[in-house]
Every structure is written in C-alpha cells, then in structure tokens.
Amino acid sequence: MASHVDTNKKRGVLIVIEGLDRSGKSTQAGALAARLAQSNVPAKLIKFPDRTTPIGKMIDAYLRSQSDLDDRAIHLLFSANRWELATSIERTLSEGTTIICDRYAFSGVVYSVSKGLPFSWCKSPDIGLPAPDLALFLDVSPEKARERGGYGEERYEKEEMQKRVRELFRKFVVREEDAEQRGDASKDDVTWVQIDAGRSLEDVKESIWREVQRVLEDAPRRPLRRLWVSH
Ligand code: DGP
How far apart are CA 98 and CA 94, in angstroms? Predict the structure, then answer.
C-alpha cells in the first residue's frame, strides 16, 4: 500500500456487487452509495467495464458488436481495464473511502468460462488485484429478468448465456461456503453473500445494507488482501 498513508486512519472497504444483466446491480449500487453518504461514510461508486478509457472504448465496441475479437483477447482487455484502476482503488481505500464496485473480476471469469474458456486460465490475469472485503451476488431468475423487460441488445444479453453465467456465479458462492466449512486454507478468502434480487427494490436494499454494516465494522481492522493469492 502507498507510503503516504496515515496509518491511524481506518481504511475504506471494497464492496463488489456482481450479478446478471437485469439483476438491479447498478440501481442497488447507486442506492448503497446514497445510503453510505447519508450515514457519513465516505464512499465512491465505480463500475466495470469502465467504458471511458481507451481500453474501455474497445470493450464497448465489442459489446455493441461493432468489432469482433478473439475470446482470449477480449478477456485480457476486460482484465486490463480493471488493472488500469487498481492503483487508484488502493489509494482511495487507504485514504479511508469505501468503494462500491459494480462488477469485478468474477464477471470476468464467469462470462468467459460461459464461452468455453478454461476456469483457471480466466482467473490468472486478475490474480493480485485488490480483493473485495465483501462480494454480493444479486441473483435473479431468467423468468424475473424477462418480467423486467428482458435483456438488451448487447452481445451477452441472451437467455442461454445468462443461464450459464448464473450457474457459474452460484458456483463461486457455493465453493467459498464449502471451503469455509472444511476450514480449507486454500480458499479464496472472499466473503460471498447471495442476495435474492427477485424481491422488491426496498427488500433487496435492506438485505444489502445489513451485510454492508457488518463489513464496515470488521474489514478495516485487517489489511486489504490481494485477489486469488494464497495468504
Ligand atoms: P454492464 O455494463 O454491467 O451491463 O456489463 C456489460 C456486459 O459485459 C455484461 O453483459 C457483462 C459483461 N462483462 C462485464 N465484465 C466482464 C468481463 O470482465 N469479462 C467479460 N467477458 N464480460 C464482462
């Protein structure tokens, strides 16, 4: 972590919100940012992919099917887009500001594995990123997503793809819970919470807030970890 940091200051907490398209991720991320502000917790909302950077613009063109790229090449671009912001994420956290991150490396893995790339290959470029203190998986059924107006026009917004993505997100959650129960030292050390995002906006907000209050209490006492690095 950066050397200019005031060591008496409590660090911010890295909260990642993951989920399918139409799960309400971005709405909930915004609502959480507002609630943190009301509670006088300094917080910043970020989103991946960040389509404003040069790499982000290539990703945007790919997602809108304006360009075609090899599956591995686009995977690496999504990862590079996260690495572009890694230093600024660390600095922000060390200055005491909490970050709410709309999608992260787990999206990176599940969307590419859904296309047939190997799981461990997909994880490798993101190894060492700042690890979230809490990862929330907003789970919504394809039926619910359809009720909400279905998917949009972008490349991955197809029901078959979304079903595979959902199963893979669930595997992240279950694998970590199993490892926790076995006391497996090689576990990822990411605290996953699955949230039923098929409920009302208010109910989902309350569930998220409960989890966030807990992590705001606990996480600043321990150093920020690195993603998928054995500790
Ligand atoms: P969003 O802006 O949250 O709607 O995300 C755009 C799309 O990109 C969405 O279908 C999910 C997908 N996506 C997000 N992150 C990644 C990633 O790291 N890798 C891949 N392959 N897809 C991603």
Answer: 9
